[in-house]
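Summary for the steering committee. One of the milestones for this cycle was to obtain a three-dimensional model of the protein with adenosine-5'-diphosphate bound, which we needed before selecting residues for the alanine scan. The sequence and ligand used are listed below.
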Amino acid sequence: MSETTPEPIPPNWPVIATILGVLFVAGGLIYGLSQDVGLLVVGILGVGVCLAVGWWLGAETTTAHLETQRLAEAAQTGGMRTSGMGRLDDTRDAIRFARAAIEASPDPVLIIDQNGRLVGTNQASRDRYSIDPGQSRFSAVIRRPNLVEAVDEVFATGESRTLSVESRVPVDRYERVSIAAFSVDSSRFVLMSVQDETEARMSERMRADFLANASHELRTPLAGIIGFIETLRGPAREDEAARDRFLEIMHLQADRMSRLISDLLSLSRIELNEHVAPTARSDFTAAVQEIVESLPPDKQSRIRFAPDGDPLWVIGDWDEIQQIAANLIDNALKYGGADSPVKIKLNGWLDRETALRLAMRDWEGASRLPLTSPELERDRLYCTLRVEDAGPGIARQHLPRLSERFYRVEETATGKSGTGLGLAIVKHIVNRHRGGLVVESEQGRGTAFAVYLPQPFELEPARSEPSLTPA
Ligand code: ADP
């Protein structure tokens, strides 16, 4: 906050002219009536003193008025011009106090003046709405017509309002926005505060979805198991061969039920956190390498993966990026056809266009589709993980539905175990990481799934700080 000396009050020329006029007329009258020079001097002095007192009182009022104007101005600019006067200092302290209190709020807070200017923000609101320091128009920051209308309405009526706001991009978000008017002297302002209700709403939805999905999906394998138990207790009681076969099927069904529950739980957990982008740094190369090394030897021998050994940093959680790699590699091994190779390609420090091209434009003549895309972020760098198989490929019409929950492509999934949740899990992890998921496939050639994830600028090899240790 900069401090400047107060501007002097300008001379009030009309008042001065009126005083001189009044003195002149009064002098003329006194001298005309009394013809006495002494009386003339005393009279003029008397009238002069009365006018001087009146002028001084007027000047006080003018000062107070200017002071009020400065206060309004200070409130609007967020800064404060000072005079040496106590009242102004109190107000300056009050404004400083209010600004510090707003800054400390964990919820986004915005203050708007009558001209639609943003005159107050806090860190939470600057982060939430990506407000640049130069941005001053409220409507340039909040682009939702219903919020802009509500602010206008609160200015017009002075009555507070509360709105529920839902956004879908880049991830689902639920917010409660409170808008209230307040005045400083004669200037009116509006305070908008935003409460994030995503977590509460998502956990409510998660519970409902989990119950619906679990009860629906578990019913079939459970009915199978009950049927086999009845057969084993009745007609097949003495049939040893049938008993072994049925027990084997029951084991598979129970296994499927347990995988379903664990996939549904993972999905719910990721969805619950999807609006909170990760902040950790993880080495994608090491994460993929660990997944490959954990595969049984017969599967590992099918993998073609030759990392160059350099870490490939992503802004992401280790467990979640491993889950992406595990699900895509597992699918490629499962649907790629027995004994066929699975190629894993990692590339890093790419701009968005190059990342997208490397991720899904490698096979001429193939069908391709982005299954989820991040919001545009200027200058962001990405790394890509592409997993290619040499399987039967997926027909074009199935591509758009691939990351839907429980969607399985009959031609490729028949006879293969699975829950239909693997790609949905990958998609939600990628969304949370503000990355993208794409598929490229050609029947007879194979399928490639790829993800691209944001990388941290500060860890880019060319950019990182030079080492202080002598070579
Ligand atoms: P799951 O594998 O458990 O069925 P996913 O969500 O991982 O579930 O995959 C959904 C469906 O997409 C699979 O059932 C399969 O039909 C198809 N699919 C996934 N990956 C491939 C692949 N690499 N090649 C062919 N089809 C695939």
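Key point for the committee: The chain has three domains: 13-89, 105-196, 279-468.
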